Amino acid sequence: MDQDVDDRAAASLAAAARSLRAGLERSHALGQALARAGPRLEEIQAALPALEAAVRPIRAPMAELAAAGPHIDRAVGPAAAVLKVFDAVHGLEPPLLQGGAGDLPGYLAVLGRLEEALGFLSNNCGLAAQWLADIVEYLGDHDLADPRFLAEVGVALEGLKKPSGHLDGGLLAAALDMLQAEFRRLLADHSTPLAMNNTSTSTAKSRVPAAAARKLSLILNRLLANGRQDSCISLYIDARGNVVSASLRDLGLDYLRNPADDAQALGPGVELWGRQLEFVVRRLLESERQLCVKVFGEHKSDASACFTEVAARASVLDFLSFGRAAADAKKDPIKLMRLLEVFDSLNKLRMDFNRLFGGKACADIQCQTRDLVKLLVDGAVEIFEELLVQVELQRQMPPPADGGVPRLVTFIVEYCNRLLSEKYRPVLAQVLAIHRSWRKEVFTDKMLAAAVLNIVKALEANFNVWSRSYGNNTLSYIFMMNTRWHLFKHVKGTKLAELLGDVWIRDHEQFKDYYITMFMRDSWGALSPLLNREGLILFSKGRATAKDLVKQRLKTFNARFSEMFHEQSAWIIPDKDLRRETCDHVMQAIVPPYRSYMQNYGPLVEQDVSASKYVKYTVDGLEKMLGALFAPRPKRSGSFQIGHSNGKMSSAMTGLYRSASTVK
């Protein structure tokens, strides 16, 4: 019995062992199965939120889901339109990146569509994003979507509310760069310098074809509209400024920066200055102004700024500085001519200056031009009004010792004729009128005529003073004959003669005969009576007595002739015709009486051993000597000193004399 119990216990233990082993095996298998199911569980765990979000609308009340539908539709519509425009922008990329040199209007049209698209995106992208954000907020408030998903969408939409400006991915900037390059190319292709030649400078012709100017304008409008003002203006100024500089390079403008300080030496420079300034203003800068107007169109302020910078390359301020140098030159009567020439050149260009440099950007040119005009007017009037004073001051100076024409006479006659010429008189009258208008005074042309007449009258008054300063009346007649005849001869047929009148001309023509008569009366006319025949008729007192009389009279004649000839050999008559006429009068007064006397009474002494003491001159020798009288002799150039009204002496008349020898 006990054995049975043991057997049953052993069997139970064996069964328990088998059961335990089987349980362990199942546990091991279950552990392995759980290990294999771990990743899948994680996937399920990760998918649960999405599943939860997917089923949430199903779980949401139907009324809320139905109310969300219209809100979503209103937001999605604008967003879809924005996306459609984005697609259109990408479609414009190929034609824009190809460039528009071949078809600029077509290229600009495409660029215009891009600008419109970007404008639409800039105005509507933020609005569409805001509407979408409102929907996201609505869904979140009503628990109709996954909060995390809504948060991520909200962050993305927040960035779209304020576009960064690169909605096109840089396409607009690339297109504008290509347009700018085309702008530069067009400027470079039409940069031929303008040459100054002998053709008329009164009008300016455009040197850039109308088609090219139109292209430049179209490009410029697009570049300015897109904020590229500085680069465009810089390109334009550099290109056109270089054209202007190249146009002036061959003109030789160094003289503008190194002007002479002497009015006479400035003459050729002022003439060249006037022609070159007219070329620069009326042709070069006028054509540049016209091009600026065509290219910049309605952008007038930019056009003005560009033109001012281009004009600076044209040395306009250097031209004005040269004019200032003429105004500041040493004081000299000829300086009046230079001042009038500079004023005339500026006055002819007055309307052009107003048109070209009338804007605020050209204030410096305007200011310097006004200052220069004032200097020219004041300086010209000062010199002109001082001429009368200077002529009067010359009375203090001694007249020429040889009885010749004072250089002052030559200068004043020619100077006044120049002032009255068509070249200078209208300009001088205008200058005087302007100057008087500044003082609220009236000017008439009669005032100019009266001023010139006063100068001539002062000069004639000098004649009388100078003639009285000679200690020899005969020399004073020579002097008056020379000066009066010179005045008559050089005034007749001139503008000054028209001013002085016919009576004045006739009077001065008669002065010549008057002074020749007075000269002959007091000099050579008194010599021939020395060869009188008194006491020699038929040798009434005997041959010896007659011979002595002839010797005595010849001796007296020879002494007096030698004295007069020696004295008058130092005198001159500059005018060839007047000199010949005077010598003819002298020879007519001396030679025939001498010839007759020697024919009749010469034999009485010619046979004498001392004949050479009494017969010193042959008739032919006498005629040659008298015919050579009054011939001018070369002499060194001299100069007058002119005294200012304040009593100080200056060397202004040095230039006056030098000028007198060059006035034509």
Provide a descriptive summary of the structure in words.
This protein is mainly α and about 675 residues long. It contains 24 helices and 2 strands. It has a two-stranded antiparallel sheet.
Compile the SSE list and pairings:
Elements lengths: L1 H58 L2 H36 L6 H38 L5 H15 L9 H19 L20 H16 L3 H21 L4 H4 L5 H34 L3 H13 L3 H12 L5 H16 L1 H8 L5 H31 L13 H13 L5 H14 L6 H25 L3 H19 L3 H6 L1 H21 L20 H26 L7 H31 L12 H9 L14 E2 L5 E2 L1 H9 L4
Antiparallel strand pairs: 1-2
Question: Helix fraction?
Answer: over 70%
**Main pleated-sheet profile:** 2 strands, antiparallel
Q: Uncertain runs with pLDDT below 50, 5 residues or more?
A: 636-664
- From the N-terminal CA to the C-terminal CA, the straight-line distance is 178 Å
